[in-house]
Amino acid sequence: GQANIGVVGLAVMGSNLARNLASREGNTVAVYNRSSDKTEHLVQAHPEAGFAPAFSYEEFAANLQKPRAAIIMVKAGRPTDAVIDELVRVFEPGDIIVDGGNALFTDTIRREKAVRETGINFVGMGVSGGEEGALLGPSIMPGGSDESWVTLGPILKSIAAIAEGEPCVTHVGHDGAGHFVKMVHNGIEYADMQLIAEAYDLIRRGTGKSPAEIADIFAEWNRGELESYLIEITAEVLRQTDAATGRPLVDVIVDQAGAKGTGAWTVQTALSLGVPVSGIAEATFARSLSSHAEQREISGGLPGPSAEGDFAVDDADEFIEKIRLALWASKIVAYSQGFDEIRAGAAEYGWKIDLGAIAGIWRGGCIIRAQFLNRITEAYAETPDLAVLLTAPYFVEALERSQSAWRDVVATSARVGIPAPAFSSSLAYYDGLRAERLPAALIQGQRDFFGAHTYKRIDKPGTFHTLWSGDRSEIEAEDTH
Ligand code: NBP
């Protein structure tokens, strides 16, 4: 075989990744797809790529140099398992199977374990950036063994996005670490998008500005600390006019947000790990709420302020600046929560993850790319075991500067009846972290009352229970609950 890398699955993502690989000096790319028409089409449409096409798994394996390395880009779930089975059949010990699809990290852990028993390496790899990223340079989050990274590293570095001269790829950690980090990336993306949407809604309804005018505001914000791909495309979407009606496009799009499930995975995993990713959760639930048309239909007449939908602020410019600061503060919370989940996942699954390097590889190629990620890298460079990202000096300064505006915006949204779930929950999380005493003490009391779940005291060691249905004296209890 003459190819040094292969791609299985030639739908849009696989084709683009194969073309990206083929465009780099020194690569010859073997390609295979279950339906031969896709393979033929790709090879004919891109003669410049010099692909080595195959029409059976045997032929695909024969086209690859040893040790073989192949990236699977098929539908996540059973199709991925089916392709892995075929590759295990035709590959040999020492070869590398990479799954670049959107797999759930626990599936990746299971697959890695099973494939490893055959002597073949298995690498679960998160790929972010959609179709365009796959073609021009994605952000790449590979897991798997150190041995696989030796072979894959140079190839992946050659196709990844470049941010400030560095390729957006790093060996995240073993087995499922790459897909875990990709999952949290998507969760953060949900939160970031929801925060931007809340900012837009408040500006529009509070100032009466048109979408095109608000596009200018986002374009302006994109020149400051909020600079990011998502802010940039928000301006583009808001500026778009619908050709058919002449109205702003955003006004003719049905207001029900779709989701492919990675946000839900992030939240479900956080619940299992006990990590409060409330901003990501609210963003995920906000999409769910939006998509329940029938519930919204029968709820439209419920009492509340601002039945007409609009309110007017006295000073539009001041209000807009407050929203910018609320967005900045809430965004810091969302990223801090996401990194908290990665930290907790690494501890639970035994991965050594360099959190600063993760922020580094998100600076290019992916949806949440932004200048601000450099600040996260710096924070972890200074304090590698930082327990709460937002306590790093740069973020503390930002929160100090923005928090009074943040509180005003959340209070205003509550007063006028405009939902701002991600703004509000981020602020509540922040205040919860700051609080000297939390009412969790009362919850412990309630738990002890109805379930004898016991509690600890602030003034002495040990575990205690009050005899609630007896004389209400306190006894020292065994810590079994
Ligand atoms: P799809 O997710 O639409 O999958 C289509 C591909 O899967 C085709 O090549 C199809 O072959 C193949 N396939 C299926 Br379906 N069942 C198969 C089986 N049993 N055996 C072999 N091949 C099978 O493709 P995509 O949209 O290009 O996405 C590929 C992966 O990348 C997915 O995991 C997706 O979640 C992920 N993705 C990532 C991003 C991102 O931004 N990172 C974006 C989009 C997708 P056929 O031609 O014979 O039907």
UniProtKB/TrEMBL annotation:
Per the record, the GO terms for biological process are:
D-gluconate metabolic process; pentose-phosphate shunt
The 6-phosphogluconate dehydrogenase C-terminal domain is annotated at 178-469
Q: In which pathway does it act?
A: Carbohydrate degradation; pentose phosphate pathway; D-ribulose 5-phosphate from D-glucose 6-phosphate (oxidative stage): step 3/3
Q: Where, by residue number, is the active site?
A: K182, E189
- What SUPFAM superfamilies does the entry give? 6-phosphogluconate dehydrogenase C-terminal domain-like, NAD(P)-binding Rossmann-fold domains
The record lists NADP(+) as bound by: G9, L10, A11, V12, M13, G14, N33, R34, S35, V74, K75, A76, N102
Q: Does the keyword Transferase apply?
A: no
Instruction: Tell me one GO molecular function of this protein.
Output: phosphogluconate dehydrogenase (decarboxylating) activity
Q: Where does substrate bind?
A: N102, S128, G129, G130, H185, N186, Y190, K260, R287, R447, H453
- What top-level branch of life does the organism fall under? Bacteria
What EC number(s) are associated with this protein in UniProt? Answer: 1.1.1.44
Question: Which SMART domains is this protein grouped with?
Answer: 6PGD
The family classification in the record reads: Belongs to the 6-phosphogluconate dehydrogenase family.
Protein name, per record:
6-phosphogluconate dehydrogenase, decarboxylating
* Organism ancestry: Bacteria, Bacillati, Actinomycetota, Actinomycetes, Micrococcales
